[in-house]
Amino acid sequence: MQEQIEHGQRERRSIQRTAAKAARLVAWGSEEASVHAAGSTKGWDLLRRLQEGEQLDMPHAEPLPRIGPRCGALRVRDADHQWRIIYRIDSDAILVVDVYSKKTRTIPDKVIERCKKRLKQYDALSDA
Questions:
Q1: Pairwise CA distance, residues 64 & 23, whole Å
Q2: Most distant pair of Cα atoms in the chain: their distance
Q3: Which parts of the chain are beta strand (E)?
Q4: Most buried among 10, 14, 83, 93, by the most CB within 10 A?
Q5: Which 3 state secondary structure label does DSSP give 70?
Q6: CA 47, CA 38: separation in Å to the nearest integer?
Q7: Contact call for residues 67 and 115 (beta carbons, < 8 A)
């Protein structure tokens, strides 16, 4: 158990150092939900804090290793919905991979698969 905690702490420090170097924000698509959620002051504030290298933990953010390394979800609440902004921290950018309205306790499998697919496409374009 202690080993898992130490691994998590090392991973967070690594992500924090990487985020501090990220100079730009890359958003995926132009879905209505992303405009609404990311357009909220809190959503943009959390993204800015990530970009500045701040380590965000619960209740503002949660890691999502199921999607990939350096991936997480920002937790944004407005008057009508709870939103999740799925992101990945790269050395040169914070990638906004997906935004969705939270309606269940777990992340829907279709959101996980969509995020993995988008990251794969982004990485293929970046390597080209």
A1: 22
A2: 42
A3: 24-27, 61-63, 71-77, 82-89, 93-101
A4: 83
A5: coil
A6: 9
A7: yes
